[in-house]
Amino acid sequence: MDGGITAPTWVAESPEAIAFLFVGLLGGAHCLGMCGPLVSVYADRLSEREQTDSLTLFQVRQHALFNVGRALSYAALGATFALAGSLLFGAVDALSLFGTGVRGTMGLLVGSAIILTGVGYLVGRSSAMDRFTPAPVTRLFGRISGWATARVDRLVGGPRILGLGAIHGLLPCPIIYPAYLYAFATGAPVRSAALLGLLGLGTIPTLFLYGTLLGQVSARRRKTLHRALGASFLVLGYIPLSHGLMLLGVMVPHLHVPFYQPLG
């Protein structure tokens, strides 16, 4: 990291990094709804290839590659959204005198959206985020998922399972939408890639155990995890919200996180 700060120190001292890690750890159970069926398919294929019900070192490696592929995909998309935000804010700063107002308004919108997502998880309405996905996009996601499922046999037995995991970055997920919005608001591609990668790594324990040992997570435990996930989103959403308010001249308590600043 910049300034000679190591990755573990950055995570320990960065409130946004801690929030992203907790979102990943707590959101792993939610990921089972989207990733669980495909995980089950490729886990069954691995067992058939090994001709054993016991967990082998090869299966562990394949599950690890699959989940690393997911994390890398999230990181790449996080960097893309952040780059788009950086280009927008840079253009606004160059062409008008309203750059601060635009960034402040964007912080309010993004922070509010993330906080509303958190409230949805707290009150058991997490599925409401799915309504914001346009029907054509949903159909496209369905075709991508179908394409991946149809090629599981071809991808599951070697390093190409990494790509199978990476496809999940293109699938709709209520815990990823707010994270991409946050990345856009920061306008910092490298930092956003690290944060989204951290979120992806945080989801690995649940999906790894699901694919190898558990097979399911009880509805009661998932509900508890969703409430904790909602609380994490409230913290994450407050970061851009507070920065947006301060850019608009409203002084509020805030966490010291470096958001996009104009050059010069």
Automatic annotation (TrEMBL):
Keyword Transmembrane helix attached: yes
Keywords linked to the UniProt accession: Membrane, Transmembrane, Transmembrane helix
Keyword Transmembrane helix: yes
Pfam families (UniProt xref): DsbD_2
Annotated Urease accessory protein UreH-like transmembrane domain residues: 20-238
Transmembrane segments: 18-43, 71-92, 104-123, 161-183, 195-217, 229-252
InterPro entries found in the cross-reference section: UreH-like_TM_dom
Name the UniProt record assigns to this protein: Urease accessory protein UreH-like transmembrane domain-containing protein
Organism name: Haloferax elongans ATCC BAA-1513
